[in-house]
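Tutorial handout. Part one gives the primary structure; part two gives the three-dimensional structure as C-alpha cells.
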Amino acid sequence: MISQGEQLIVVGVGASAGGLEALEIMFDNIAPDSRMAFVVIQHLSPDFRSLMDELLARHTKLAIHRVENGMVVEPNSIYLIPPKKEMIISNGRLLLSDKDQSAQFTLPIDIFLRSLAQDCKSASVGVVLSGTGSDGAIGISKIHEAGGLVIVQSEDSAKFNGMPRSAIETGMADLVVPPEKIGALLSRYATTPGRESFLAELASDSESEPMLQMVFGALQRDFGLDFRQYKPGTMLRRLHRRSVLANCSSVEEYAGTILTNEIERKALYGDLLINVTHFFRDPEMFDSLRKEILAKLTTSWKEGPIRVWVCGCSTGQEAYTIAMILHDLLTGLRRSTEVRIFATDIDRESLEIAGRGLYSSSAVQGIPPEFLQTYFKETVNGYQIIPDLRQMITFAPHNALRDAPFTNLYLATCRNFLIYLNNDAQQKVLSLLYFGLKSNGILFLGSSETPGDILADMSVLDSTSKIFQK
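Part two.
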C-alpha cells in the first residue's frame, strides 16, 4: 500500500508491434521496490491469448496482474490490459469496457493515457515503445500538459518506429532513449519525483550548462530572443528532439551542428517557441469563462469597446475561440458592442498563419458543431474564418519579456506559456498582464499555471479554471 500523503506514480506504457522485447529490456532495468505502478497497454488481436504475464515474469520481480474491472492500482505492480477491452483509470481504479468490434481503428493507448493524465496529473508518466501507427501521441500530449513525465523509445532502437516517431513529432517527449535506459530512468524518477526537478537533475549530471549557453547565444544573435529565461529542462527536451530528427548521436554533437548550420538553427528556434495550441483547449475552462464571466459581461457592458489581450497566441486558435464566444453572446443579446482582441506572439510565422485564419479539418475538431457552421466556411483548402470574426482581432508581434503591455483591458489571457519560463520570467510576464488590466479586469491562465506573487492583489473567481480578477 502507498502511505498516507504519498502520491503513487502511475506509469502508462504503450506498446504494439515489436514492443515485447522493449518491455522485457525496460523491466530488466526497473528496481523491484520502485513503489511505482505500471499499466501496459498493447494492441492485442481479439482471438489472441496473451502470454505477456508469463514472459514478463522472467524479467521482473514486480507483481503482474491481468486487469479485472475495478481493480485498485497498487505500487510495485504491473497491470496488463485483457484482449477485446479498452481501459481507463479513474480514482485509482482500472475500469474496463468492451471494445467496439465494428470499429476498424481504435486507439487504446491514447484512451488510457488521456485518462491517466486526468486522474493522476503530475504523478502520471507516459511511455511509448515500438509499434506502427500513431497511437499514444495524443495521450502523451495530455500527460505533458498535466505536468507528468513523457519518455519515448528512440526510433533507431525500435523494431517498428511509427509510434515512437509520432510521439517524438508532438514535441512533448521529455526523453527519447533506448529501452534499457527507460528502465533506469524510471527507477531514478521514483526517487526524484517531479518532472522539472528530475530533468534539471539530469541536466546537471550531463554538465549541459555551457552547451546550453553556447546554443542560446547563437539563437539570440540570429533571432534576438534570449532563451536563458526559459526552464533548462524544457530547452534540453527540445534540443534532444531536434538532435534525434537531425540524426545526431548526442545532444552535444547537435549543439556543434547549431553553430555551423543556419537552417538547423531556424528549425530549433521554431521548436523552442513551442507552438502548441487548439481551439477550445481545456473546454471545461472555456465553458466556465463563458458562463461565469463573459455572459455577465456582455449583458451589462456599457463602457465602449471590450478590450482583450491574448498573450502568446501562437497560430491563433485561442484568439478565435474567445472571439467566437463573445460574438455568439452579443448576437444572442442583439447587442452591437465593439470587441477589440489584441493577439500577440513573438513568432512571425505563427502570426501569419493566424492572420490567414485557414485551418485543416483536424485542427477544427474541437470546435462545437454550431460554432463551426456559423464561424467557418468550408473550402477546398480547409476551413476559413468568416470576415466578421477576423475583423475583431489584431494579430501583432510582441515579446512579453521585453515589450510594453496593452492597457485598459477587461480580459488578459496567457495560457500554457508561463510553464516553460523560469520563476523570474514568469513573474515579469504576470506583472505585465496585471498592469494592462483595468480595475476588476480578468486574468485567464492555463491549467498548470498560477498568478504567483500578484495573487495577493487579485481575487480568485475560479481556482479550477484559473480565472482571477484584479
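Part three, for discussion. Residues 218 and 259 are 7 Å apart (CA to CA). The longest helix spans residues 283-300.
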